[in-house]
């Protein structure tokens, strides 16, 4: 009997000791991130049958269990990914919005100062000092565009570097998860602390991307990122990498290395911080550069066009003030193709009002060209003419050498324009103050005459027929100089040695009067330049050049406010999910202190059983003497 009591007591002591050890382990890890509270599952020993009855044989510690709720943890991982994505986007847009409100704000200020200088020159068109001020203000506009473009370009480079660093950390996590899996296989019982470490790594991974975890029959796990890309499978980890973009090699893409194969991952498949980085680089920064580029093209091209419609101080047709955005070099730079391509395409801007931001994708399947617009709409295009070309959204795409079968290129009409903008005029005397479009013109449309070469005919009028199908050129007395012919013309028009170009935007009965006789003190072209400040040149006649900037600032502000609210909502959801996990897995010090006292008393009571067994055994021995 003494031996039975001793066994009962010793097992009780050992079980209570394990309870105390586990409780102490919980208390020690109360501040350990990712720790799940553990508890000892104790069970009664199998009874012994004796004398027609079953007698209990004590207790034992059956297992140490984690307090864990798989569904709550999965919910927290999803909430973590959503919060990380919203927080990263809010931070990115906040920095960009702050730049637009401070350094980029100089762009419209510089433009307004330029128009102010033009107004000052209008009062004294021959004043060289006033002309120098106009050129200096023009340089400030170009420099402001260049500076902001440089900042956005650097942010794009920095974001790509952050993407590489994030991918590296995700690969490290994948390898650490494999190491944990190996340690789990070596652990004979349930590896509670290793599983906590596993969950902590998954939690960190969910900050970078969307994660799902599936348990395997062998006790290990499959870790899937995005919309079905296996990062870890049991004892094996795939490697994430970035590949050069296609066809833009600078926009690196995400890919997964699986054995000897490399599988590209769409950026839309990724959430979390990594997804936010891709969105910022490919969407937000691209939008900002496109809109600033449209402003640069609109501002420069409108002023250059007016320069070409007037006389400078030397009585010559005005030269460009800014970069010619329809030069062959810049027209070719709007096309992005891979390094092995032999295609030769140029993109010219013919209509500012129709010019849109974004990427166009042109693909050739061997027989047909297909153009995908920035909004995703596809349309077949058929180039015509010599060289072949087609028109879309104010652009003329000229194909000097065609695409190979199944080749695709990107068309970015305005992406780099803010960085390409320069003041090309050096002599202030070259500013064309006098317009050769005479005040006697009667024009209801947007018809324009551009003098390509000044010859013997100094004054004439271009007249559009009442039905708008023909035009003719007469002198100031109505005598025919160029007989009626189809409108719009197919090329330049020779008027007694003066060669002109007539656009296709005149309306019936328009009369465009041209005078190539210089007049000292004439400021008619400067007045037209001033009018550009409020002229609706962009967005199909809805926006001025400055309105484009205001629209960009407003859109970025709306996006910022939207992600700020989304971050607040995601924070609430994350805190709620974290609370549910803590309710199940968290350590409560008050509860653990109570358990400590309870198990301490159990330990002491079991020790008393052992004392009783010892005393009983001694009594039996003494009785036999």
Question: What does the model show?
Answer:
A 5-stranded antiparallel beta sheet has the order 13-20-15-16-17. The protein has a 4-stranded antiparallel beta sheet with strand order 5-6-7-8. The protein has a 4-stranded antiparallel beta sheet with strand order 25-24-23-28, with no helix packed on it. With 625 residues, it is of the alpha+beta class. It has helices at residues 2-28, 70-101, 106-123, 128-186, 192-208, 272-307, 328-333, 417-420, 524-531, 545-585, 589-623; strands at 38-44, 48-50, 53-55, 59-66, 211-215, 221-225, 229-233, 236-237, 239-243, 253-258, 261-265, 310-311, 335-336, 344-349, 360-364, 369-372, 378-381, 389-392, 395-401, 407-411, 434-435, 449-453, 459-464, 470-474, 480-486, 493-495, 498-502, 511-515. The radius of gyration is 39 Å and the shape is elongated.
Features:
single chain; 625 residues; alpha+beta; 5-stranded antiparallel β-sheet; 4-stranded antiparallel β-sheet; 21% strand; elongated
């Amino acid at each position: 009997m003494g031996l039975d009591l001793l066994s009962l007591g010793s097992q009780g002591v050992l079980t209570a000791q394990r309870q105390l050890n586990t409780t102490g382990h919980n208390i020690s890890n109360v501040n350990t991130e990712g720790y799940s509270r553990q508890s000892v599952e104790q069970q009664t020993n199998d009874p012994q049958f004796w004398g027609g009855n079953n007698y209990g044989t004590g207790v034992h510690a059956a297992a140490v269990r984690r307090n864990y709720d798989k569904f709550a943890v999965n919910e927290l991982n999803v909430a973590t990914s959503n919060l990380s994505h919203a927080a990263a986007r809010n931070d990115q847009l906040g920095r960009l919005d702050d730049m637009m409100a401070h350094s980029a704000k100089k762009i419209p200020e510089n433009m307004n100062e330029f128009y102010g200088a033009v107004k000052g020159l209008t009062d004294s068109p021959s004043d060289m000092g006033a002309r120098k001020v106009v050129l200096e203000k023009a340089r400030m506009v170009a420099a402001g565009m260049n500076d902001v473009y440089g900042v956005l370009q650097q942010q794009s480079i920095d974001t790509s570097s952050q993407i590489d660093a994030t991918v590296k950390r995700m690969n490290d996590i994948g390898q650490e998860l494999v190491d944990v899996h190996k340690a789990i296989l070596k652990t004979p019982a349930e590896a509670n602390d290793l599983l906590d470490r596993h969950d902590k790594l998954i939690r960190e991974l969910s900050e970078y991307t969307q994660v799902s975890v599936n348990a395997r029959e062998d006790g290990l796990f499959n870790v899937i990122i995005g919309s079905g890309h296996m990062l870890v499978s049991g004892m094996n980890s795939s490697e994430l990498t970035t590949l050069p973009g296609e066809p833009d090699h600078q926009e690196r893409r995400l890919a997964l290395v699986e054995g000897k194969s490399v599988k590209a991952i769409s950026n839309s498949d990724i959430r979390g911080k990594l997804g936010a980085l891709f969105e910022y680089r490919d969407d937000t920064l691209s939008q900002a550069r496109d809109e600033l580029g449209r402003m640069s093209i609109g501002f420069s091209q409108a002023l250059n066009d007016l320069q070409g419609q007037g006389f400078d101080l030397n009585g010559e047709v005005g030269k460009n003030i800014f970069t010619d955005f329809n030069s062959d070099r810049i027209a070719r730079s709007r096309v992005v193709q891979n390094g092995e391509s032999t295609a030769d395409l140029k993109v010219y801007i013919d209509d500012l009002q129709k010019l849109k931001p974004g990427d166009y994708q042109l693909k050739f399947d061997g027989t047909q060209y297909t153009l995908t617009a920035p909004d995703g709409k596809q349309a077949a295009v058929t180039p015509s003419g010599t060289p072949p070309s087609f028109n879309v959204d104010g652009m003329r795409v000229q194909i000097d050498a065609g695409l190979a079968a199944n080749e695709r290129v990107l068309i970015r009409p305005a992406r780099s324009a803010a960085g390409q903008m320069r003041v090309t005029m050096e002599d202030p005397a070259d500013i064309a103050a006098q317009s050769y479009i005479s005040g006697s013109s009667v024009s209801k449309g947007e018809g324009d005459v551009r003098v390509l070469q000044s010859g013997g005919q100094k004054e004439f009028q271009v007249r559009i027929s009442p039905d708008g199908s023909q035009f003719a050129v007469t002198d100031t007395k109505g005598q025919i100089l160029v007989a009626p012919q189809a409108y719009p013309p197919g090329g330049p028009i020779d008027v007694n040695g003066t060669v002109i170009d007539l656009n296709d935007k005149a309306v019936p009965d328009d009369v465009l009067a041209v005078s190539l006789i210089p007049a000292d003190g004439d400021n008619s072209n400067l007045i037209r330049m001033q009018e550009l400040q409020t002229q609706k040149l962009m967005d199909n006649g809805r926006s001025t050049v400055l309105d484009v900037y205001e629209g960009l600032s407003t859109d970025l502000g709306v996006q910022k406010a939207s992600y700020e609210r989304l971050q607040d909502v995601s924070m609430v959801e994350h805190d709620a999910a974290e609370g549910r996990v803590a309710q199940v897995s968290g350590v409560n010090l008050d509860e653990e202190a109570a358990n400590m006292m309870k198990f301490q008393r159990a330990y002491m009571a079991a020790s008393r059983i052992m004392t009783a067994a010892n005393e009983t055994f001694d009594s039996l021995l003494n009785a036999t003497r």
